Amino acid sequence: MTTPGSGPSPRVMGGWVSLRDAIADAQRRLEAAGVPSPETDALLLAAHVMGVPRGRLMLHDRLESEQRTAYERLLTRRIVRVPLQHLLGVAPFRNLEVLVGPGVFIPRPETELVAQAAIDVLRSLPVEERRAVDLCTGSGAVALALATEAAPATVWAVEVDPEALTWARRNVAEQSSSLSEVGSHVEVVEADARTCAREGSPLAGLVADIAVVTMNPPYVPEGARVRDPEVRDFDPAIALYGGPDGMDVIRGGIDSAAHLLRPGGLVVIEHADEQGDEAEEGVPVLLAADGRWVEISDHRDLARKPRFTTARRGLSGGAP
Fold first, then answer.
1. Element spanning 75, H or E
2. In Å, how far are 45, 49, 80, 277, 307 from 298, measured between CA atoms?
3. What is the b/e burial string over 112-144, where b = at least 16 CB atoms within 10 angstroms of the residue's CB?
């Protein structure tokens, strides 16, 4: 029986091993451990160890002794389901690579659709109106995507968790040259997404002045078991769990967005599969009941699952 970490070892030749053999061995071990994408992970880890892009990996034919040791350390951690992004130190997001690690939520491909909806609207506006707020910013991935792809733009990236704030600030600093080149600015703000626009709060001065608000909030109900070990064991709980029904931060974020957006401004809210337009108390229902929103529409991801809701700020005040 094959067990995680078992299998034939790559051939050792003096102080090095065949790169092809090492990658094949790594793929077998990762697959045995239940890692979802063993071939991709084996290749990306090897490229990381060798310091080359994945596309140039096969121009090399061997792993030196020190590289093999480093590769083995990374494989051992990946086999026990440490996220690949933590091992590489970065996560891809649209046109960016953002720094990630323990203490910050890893951006997912589904969230790229949330960013796209916001980018499309910002690009359609005159330059002086391209002002956005990204609530629950985490690593800052969405805020940076808006600022770089809808440039020039000003984006406020709001986060309450101190550890995530550190990562967001690192990413904004890492992208500072790119932001300057396109005339954009991202300001990281320590604040609660639910209260950040109230009187005396950090964004109170932006009330009715913002064109787009995005939000990828914690939306897993408390007590629900997250099956994916990379998420369950490594993403911070504050970024996952949103109260008894998973909607606590969403409710508060909707109120903040209603304060921040000018009439006609767009809110984009990511949600769980079960919180879309087919849910009796999903995000579209919350927005409709609030009374301050029009053009409410739910959208599906590439797997055709309900993934995010958009709405426009109405002209009336609606609910307090």
1. helix 65-79
2. 37, 42, 37, 6, 8
3. bbbbebbbebbeeeeeeebbbbbbbbbbbbbbb
Q: Considering the domain boundaries, does residue 250 fall inside one?
A: yes
Give residue 2's pLDDT band: very low, low, confident or very high (50, 70, 90): very low
**Is there a single domain that holds both residue 76 and residue 100?**
no
Q: Residue 120: phi, psi to the nearest 5?
A: -60, -45
d(CA 250, CA 234): 22
Q: Helices (DSSP H) in 175-228: which residue ranges?
A: 176-182
In a domain, 5, yes or no: no
State pLDDT tens for residues 242-251.
Answer: 999 999 999 9
The pLDDT value recorded for residue 14 is: 44
SS (H, E, C) 243-283: CCCCCHHHHHHHHHHHHHEEEEEEEEEECCHHHCCCCCCCH
Range of the domain at 229: 93-313
Give all strands (DSSP E) within the chain, no chain letters: 12-13, 16-18, 62-64, 90-93, 96-99, 131-135, 154-159, 185-190, 210-215, 261-270, 293-300, 306-313
Shared domain for 119 and 26, answered yes or no, is no
For 44-89, the pLDDT digits (tens) are 999 999 999 888 887 777 888 899 999 999 999 999 999 999 999 9
Contact in structure between 63 and 17 (CB atoms under 8 Å)? yes
What share of residues in the chain are helix, strand, coil (percent, to 5)?
Answer: 40, 20, 35
For residues 5 and 30, give the distance between their C-alpha atoms in angstroms, rounded to a whole number.
Answer: 8
Q: 51 with 129, same domain?
A: no
| Calpha distance 188→201 (Å, rounded) | 14
Per-residue pLDDT tens over the stretch 121-171: 999 999 999 999 999 999 999 999 999 999 999 999 999 999 999 999 999
